[in-house]
Amino acid sequence: MGTGKKSEDWSDAELEAAVDGYLKMLAIERSGQKLNKAHENRLLREGVLRERSKGSIEYRMRNISTELNDLCLPYIVGYVPAAHLGAGVAHRIRAAMIAKDAFNPDDYAPTANDQELNAKVLKLEQQELVGTPRGIEKPQRVSGTTYTFLRDPLVKAWVLKQANGVCEGCGQDAPFKQPNGLHFLEVHHVKHLANDGTDLVTNAVALCPNCHRRCHHSTDREEFAASLYTKVKRLKPE
């Protein structure tokens, strides 16, 4: 039974038990088996979470769904992501998820290095991505031999998966497949990052090399860029 303890009082051991239980249920659901959430909740209350109520455990499961949703990873259908989650609790839940190998945080870390970015994107592109990435509203400029920006690999991977091998500029198939079997398209920020554009899916498109260069070098680049807002419904002018 519950003791009235506040949600902030959850210990690391309790959060780890909740994450363990969640990942177990997620595996059951993803395998196509029938998931009995009430039974799994009861098992948790017979163990480490014996001082927690059924309702508090249910809400904690929704917190875990929130974190998975932010990573564009599949979550349990019956546990809708909770709208509000404090940064401290979110950090601790993610730490517990990382300890259970639920995801690799390095794959999601923003980077200004193109080689590192593409390596991260390659891994993320081969996963099932659900939902929409948060992205970066104000990408940080990084100085070096040239100015570059920290970019979210999840945004690039998501945009490429949405395009599914078709250029979002001209509607033609990607010009070729890479050795890994994935179609070759380039991700372009319609409002350039150097012009204070965001690194969000609402400002990024997957283009063939020809259309990408058209955005940068052609005499009609402004008109072509403007046409993308009509062709790609998720785009929002900035």
UniProtKB/TrEMBL annotation:
Signal peptide as annotated in the record: none
Domain HNH nuclease: 154-213
UniProt keyword annotations, A-Z: Endonuclease, Hydrolase, Nuclease
Pfam families to which the protein is assigned, alphabetical: HNH (PF01844)
Domain of life: Bacteria
Any one GO MF annotation of this record: zinc ion binding
The name this protein goes by in its record: HNH endonuclease
Gene source species: Pseudomonas laurylsulfativorans
